[in-house]
Amino acid sequence: MTTYDVIVSREGKWWMICIPALDGLTQARRLDEAPIMARDYIAVALDVPVSEVAVAVSVLDVDGVDVFQALENLRHEKAEADAARERVAEGTRRLAVVPRDVA
Predict the structure, then answer these.
(1) Residues 73-102 pLDDT 10s
(2) What are residue 90's phi and psi, to 5 degrees?
(3) Which pTM does this prediction carry?
(4) How many domains does the chain have?
(5) How far is residue 52 from each of residues 17, 28, 36, 99, measured CA to CA in Å?
(6) What CA–CA distance (Å, rounded) separates 4 from 19?
(7) Do 78 and 89 sit in the same domain of this protein?
(8) Is residue 18 domain-shared with residue 50, that is, in the same domain?
(9) Contact, 55 vs 39, CB < 8 A?
(10) Residues 65 and 10 sit within 8 Å (Cβ to Cβ)
């Protein structure tokens, strides 16, 4: 399987996906669609199955924001929030079984 470097940048409402090895350009509405669109483009351009194409995506800064790093930070924060919610739910379940006359 060959891995192709792709560079994603924001242009208006679109994410532009540049594939330098093929001098190719495609686009996606959402950033999470970029790898799929890149793989599809490469597979069609080279007439190979999509399963034989891998991409390494890098994103240019958007308004001074490293988009991939920001997404990674959000994923981490969401995981922490999910864990906190689970701890609260577990604590609530434990309290629900405490007899009322204990005080």
Answers:
(1) 898 999 999 999 999 999 999 888 877 776
(2) -65, -45
(3) 0.63
(4) 2
(5) 19, 21, 13, 61
(6) 7
(7) yes
(8) yes
(9) yes
(10) no
